[in-house]
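Appendix B: a complete holo record

For completeness, this appendix reproduces one full record from the ligand-bound portion of the collection. The bound molecule is nicotinamide-adenine-dinucleotide. The inputs are the chain sequence and the ligand SMILES; the output is the full three-dimensional arrangement of the complex, encoded as structure tokens. No fields have been trimmed.
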Amino acid sequence: MYENEKTKLQKIIDDSTNIVFFGGAGVSTESGIPDFRSEDGLYRQKYKYSPEQVISHSFFMKYPDVFYEFYKDKMMCLEAKPNAAHNKLSELEKSGKLKAVVTQNIDGLHQKAGNKTVYELHGSIHRNYCMKCKKFYDAKYVKNQKGIPYCECGGMIKPDVVLYEEGLDGNVINAAIRAIASADTLIIGGTSLVVYPAAGFIDYFHGKHLVVINKLKTGKTVNAELCVNAPIGEIMSGIKIK
Ligand SMILES: NC(=O)c1ccc[n+]([C@@H]2O[C@H](COP(=O)([O-])OP(=O)(O)OC[C@H]3O[C@@H](n4cnc5c(N)ncnc54)[C@H](O)[C@@H]3O)[C@@H](O)[C@H]2O)c1
Ligand SMILES: [Zn+2]
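The structure of the chain with nicotinamide-adenine-dinucleotide bound, as generated:
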């Protein structure tokens, strides 16, 4: 399937020496982590509060118990393994062709697959800090605590994840934009491109080849040389590194 698209993508990869990948939740659905906006994404599931409400800063401060119930259940998928897309990106980095992954994901699967240069625009479930004494806690500790996780000092633990109403880390933004701006090829994959400011970062790309691999149409119109509406694992796994 998608032989024509795979051939075109291969030609682009062969012609590239500085690839950057920009991705979102759709990269991890094949690892069993639900995204937000697909048919079976979290926005279509029924809760008392919408996911957007629950993972906002004000909601976290007001109802940390409800926040943690949702967050631990739906967003902390600690058993998830990298899929074919993550693995190909890791191979591409090792070969020297891929210079960075810029991701909106918080699951840490790119690092698990072996990628070294990963700019996590929205933070990570794997980093958690006490709000009082700043002590670090890993994801396993947070997930295994009953209800709200607390530090040994009594402070509440907060994930190092960018919640709605919170700003992105300036250093991460700068590094991500620098990588995108200097790339010769940008591959955008598994993202609806509706979450800002992240979606706007792709506008810094001025290289040769722009590729989009996404199951559904993206929210933001991208003038791509190649647009593939297909599962990203299948498309990426077809890439041969020469
Ligand atoms: N895995 C995670 O870390 C995770 C999971 C859910 C949400 N989030 C957060 O939610 C926000 C949502 O924005 P978003 O744009 O990343 O996600 P989104 O849910 O808005 O969009 C996901 C997009 O990926 C596409 N998609 C789904 N599975 C795919 C596949 N196998 N192959 C190709 N395309 C596929 C869908 O068609 C959709 O357009 C992000 O900020 C992110 O931080 C992260
Ligand atoms: Zn503490």
